[in-house]
From TrEMBL:
An annotated GO BP: mismatch repair
Protein name: DNA mismatch repair protein
Entry keyword set: ATP-binding, DNA-binding, Membrane, Nucleotide-binding, Transmembrane, Transmembrane helix
InterPro entries for the chain: DNA_mismatch_repair_MutS_C (IPR000432), MutS (IPR045076), P-loop_NTPase (IPR027417)
GO molecular function, one term: mismatched DNA binding
GO cellular component, one term: cytosol
Length: 592
């Protein structure tokens, strides 16, 4: 990046219009230079030798004008990406996520919690967090979202994310570069492995390359001066064909494997940003060090050299290059430069895509942290406990979301959650689960304060039938519960969330089965919440010491039902299914 690209979003439309006008001027200037260059070349061959000097100046100016034109086009792309970034920021802020990448292919019904907590799919956490550009970074972010809880690691990462979130210019520039230039279709999947493999370096192509260049120049000069017949030039070309064939295969493979210029441009600009940035947190320093070379040029400089090499390598079949190559045997010199570069630096930069994917994920998390602006604190406890103050769901609009305070420990390790339909039971359980995922990512919770013990997360909330496998929703739920029991019996510490337990069977069996499960868990180390409509189960609080009742309430009026969405101690005093059915048109008491 020899010139500074403007990443500031202020006045984007006016800046874009100004640059469009400059592009028009440079396009006209290039046309004039091209016509002038052609005229000087004609005069060189038809009039006198000294016309080579204005021709050379015109050629240099033409190349400079092309570079300026490309720079201005890059700036236009940056401005357009900044506009797109602002548009997506507003969509996330308003929680209008329909047009954003849903990551639905990462859903996994057998995963301990991802399907139940809206991590992927329509209106999901992935849509809020994801600012990645490469498929490898996208997959890495998905794996982080699905990773089992390790809140201690998340707490260490939290400091790094907070520091990165303060670097607004870096975040904006990094995302704008990726959105402007990175093209996943032009990324080469096996680039890293191939880059680390050395080229079998041979010295004779180098000597032959210099012979071809010098011989071609001498031959062209002598032919121009009329000292040798022009047929000699044809003989010279035929003489070079076997030598060019020696390196053709390896250069073709390099052209097929080296990433496109747009991908290299993205990588190079990202590296320049990171090389110029200073980080205090150890995690960020370690990630940066993986991109740097202990000795030699900077990594961005190496990619700049690779970019120039790839321009020659990938354009060798160009109609303008072919006669140049045949006459001056330039492939031999290109092969020499390529072999020397790859053998010197190929292994050093082979891991760049993987490391830059990690930075894409870090940047995504930091952008989320900055945009959401959550300032709540959290800490890790060595006790099996969970305490939250002012917690709410990140997928709800913060200005309308209702926050709750809640705590549980081993003295009341199991909570029975009752409440009216639509009162907020399921949303509250998902609120706890998805905030734990945020902590695991190193992000701030959507809460004023959160204290969390060390445990794994397990949920059973969205259990559906599968006709293809002849599985009913009830059997699917039993399978989930069995998975949870197996984890507990294997000594794992769990925080589990079971929504509307055993809802697929009759009331008598549901109550009996629920009580049996609750008693079965007595000796296990866990925290758990079970929601149910069976108010009869709330009576177990007086019989089972580790069971606590909590509930959500509703107020029934003549034509409406009001909810406050606040969790309260004790069982639910009343339910609203009868009234809801009336409001939906079901008339009780009418007989035909």
């Amino acid at each position: 990046m020899n010139r500074i690209i403007d990443f500031h979003p202020e006045g984007i439309q006016q800046k874009e219009q100004d640059i469009q006008r400059r592009i028009g001027v440079f396009s006209l200037f290039r046309l004039v230079l091209f016509v002038g260059l052609g005229a000087f070349v004609v005069l060189f061959f038809s009039d006198a030798f000294y016309w080579i000097f204005p021709a050379s100046l015109a050629l240099w100016t033409f190349v400079w004008a092309i570079q300026q034109h490309h720079f201005l086009k890059d700036q236009i792309q940056i401005f357009r990406s900044l506009s797109k970034i602002e548009q997506e920021r507003e969509q996330r802020s308003s929680r209008y996520l329909r047009d954003l990448d849903s990551g639905s292919e990462f859903l996994d019904k057998d995963h301990p919690f991802c399907n139940d907590l809206d991590l992927f799919g329509e209106h999901s956490l992935f849509q809020l967090v994801n600012h990645t550009h490469s498929s490898s970074a996208r997959q890495l972010l998905a794996s982080r979202l699905k990773a089992q809880l390790n809140v201690e690691n998340g707490y260490r990462l939290h400091g790094a994310i907070r520091e990165l979130a303060e670097k607004e210019d870096l975040l904006r520039a990094f995302e704008a570069i990726g959105k402007a230039f990175f093209n996943e279709k032009e990324q080469k999947a096996d680039w890293s492995t191939w880059m680390s493999q050395p080229v079998q370096f041979r010295s004779f192509p180098t000597a032959l390359g210099w012979i071809g260049l010098i011989g071609g120049l001498i031959g062209a000069t002598l032919a121009y001066l009329g000292q040798i017949p022009s047929v000699f030039l044809g003989v010279w070309i035929l003489l070079g064909l076997p030598f060019l064939g020696m390196v053709f295969k390896e250069l073709k493979e390099a052209g097929d494997r080296i990433p496109s210029q747009t991908v290299l441009k993205t990588y190079r600009h990202w590296l320049l940003l990171l090389e110029q940035e200073k980080f205090e947190h150890t995690i960020l320093q370690n990630h940066k060090n993986k991109l740097m070379l202990p000795e030699g040029p900077s990594t961005s400089k190496l990619l700049e050299e690779l970019d120039r090499l790839s321009l020659w390598i990938q354009n060798r079949m160009n109609l303008l290059y072919i006669p140049l190559n045949l006459f001056f045997w330039t492939d031999l010199l290109i092969y020499h430069r390529w072999a020397k570069w790859k053998n010197s630096w190929g292994k050093e930069i082979a891991g760049l895509p993987e490391e830059l994917a990690s930075w894409e994920v870090l940047i995504s998390l930091a952008i989320f942290e900055r945009e959401e602006g959550q300032s709540g604190s959290w800490e890790v406890s060595d006790q099996m406990e969970l305490e939250v103050k002012g917690i709410f769901h990140p997928l709800l609009l913060p200005k309308i979301a209702v926050s709750n305070d809640f705590s549980m420990d081993q003295s009341g390790k199991l909570v029975l959650l009752t409440g009216a339909n639509m009162s907020g039971k399921t949303t509250f359980m998902r609120t706890l689960g998805i905030n734990l995922v945020l902590l695991n990512l190193g992000l701030s919770p959507f809460a004023k304060f959160l204290r969390v013990g060390v445990f794994k997360l397990y949920t059973s909330m969205r259990n559906s039938d599968n006709l293809g496998q002849s599985i009913s929703s009830f059997y699917a739920e039993l399978s989930r519960i069995k998975g949870m029991i197996d984890c507990l019996e294997n000594g794992e510490r769990l925080f589990f969330l079971l929504d509307e337990i055993l809802k697929g069977t009759n009331t008598e069996d549901r109550i009996a089965g629920s009580e049996a499960l609750i008693r079965q868990l007595a000796v296990r180390e866990f925290l758990g919440i079970i929601s149910t409509h069976d108010i009869e189960l709330s009576r177990l609080e007086s019989k089972i010491s580790y069971l606590r009742n909590f509930s959500f309430h509703s107020q029934i009026h003549e034509n409406t039902i009001d909810f406050d969405y606040l969790i309260k101690p004790g069982p639910c005093p009343s339910f609203n299914a009868h009234k809801l059915m009336e409001l939906m048109g079901i008339r009780f008491g009418e007989k035909s």
